[in-house]
Amino acid sequence: MNTRRHFMAALSVTVSALAALAVGGQPVYAKDLKIGFSQVTLQSPFYVQLKNGAEAAAKPPATN
To answer: For burial by CB atoms within 10 Å, which of 18, 25, 40, 63 has the most?
Structure first.
């Protein structure tokens, strides 16, 4: 049991490291990518913040 846990932990770390190396640390933005967001109600402050956060994240990053 303990060996299996260590194996899974090592596998998880290895896969995460490989994924990080594959990305290369550079942000990648897909052109013409659209993600839908359907908001049912804005009666709760939580959902208002959720909507505002989604709108802020959808804006393109500022370039210098």
So the answer is: 18
Considering its fold, how many domains does the chain have in total?
Answer: 1
- Does residue 64 lie within any of the structural domains? no
Cα within 13 Å of Cα(30), Cβ side: 4
Spatial neighbors of 32 by CB under 8 A, at least 6 apart, are none
Structure tokens at 18: 């490989």
Backbone angles phi, psi at 44, to 5 degrees: -100, 140
Dist. CA 35–CA 52, nearest whole Å: 15
Q: How far apart are alpha carbons 24 and 5 in whole angstroms?
A: 29
Residues 4-20: tens digit of each pLDDT: 888 888 889 888 877 77
